[in-house]
Amino acid sequence: MIGFYRDNWQHVGAVLFAVLAFFMGFFGEVFSPIQEILVYSFMALLAHQYEEYALPGGAGLVINAVMYGERRDYDRYPGNMQSMLLVNTVGAYIFYIAAIIFPQAIWLGLATMFFGFFQIIGHGIVMNLRGGTWYNPGLATAIFLFGPIGAFYIDYVIRNDLVRPMDYVYGAAGFVAAIVLILVLPIRSLMDRNSPYPMSEEDMARFNMLAKVRARGLVDD
């Protein structure tokens, strides 16, 4: 069961997205207005992850070969299927769902929105510059979902006088803490060139990504 989820968590996330879309369409009034925004933000995360790892997919290879510059063991180092599971479900899910459960913690909501803006910079600028591309898996949802939802959330809390200056400070600190706890620590703690959880050839071939990084000389074979 664990192995199945490790290999298919992004598809499970897509099912969760569909369930939430149905629920919000028919029963969304159970949430407060600010919670509705935060639920849609979580749904944006699910869509973003699906774009990264399923359709078109290939983000794991981009992270290892393009972002970290790994040329040899790019199928499992520094990121592998186990660390990707922890980063994208355990860590990210807790972060975004906590903001929904505690909507009065405006700083926490801001932290999730800053995390989304960070994805725009990461996918739109850093990954494209390093990979010599104009698009990479995750860019579309970052721009068209994280960006507008984050802007709407900030506008909402300002218009309704819900945010205080220190919320931005705490939100920025929460964002940095999330980067460390959700992204950095899981990847570094599970870094292993002999990891038994490599990406499959199918995963690396999504969006023709393996051929692209080979053509650009970013990997050794």
Give a verbal description of the structure.
- This protein is mostly helical.
- The chain has one domain.
- 73% of the residues lie in helices and 0% in strands.
- It has nine helices and no strands.
- Helix 2 runs antiparallel to helix 4, helix 4 packs antiparallel against helix 7 and helix 5 crosses helix 7.
- The mean pLDDT is 95.
Fold blueprint:
Blueprint: H1 2-27, H2 33-53, H3 59-67, H4 81-101, H5 106-131, H6 139-159, H7 165-189, H8 201-205, H9 209-215
Number of domains: 1
Order of helices and strands: HHHHHHHHH
Structural class: mainly alpha
Rounded to the nearest angstrom, the distance between the terminal CA atoms is 34 Å
Count of helical regions:
9
Compute the number of strand runs.
0
Helix content: over 70%
Q: Beta-strand level of the residues, as a percent range?
A: under 5%
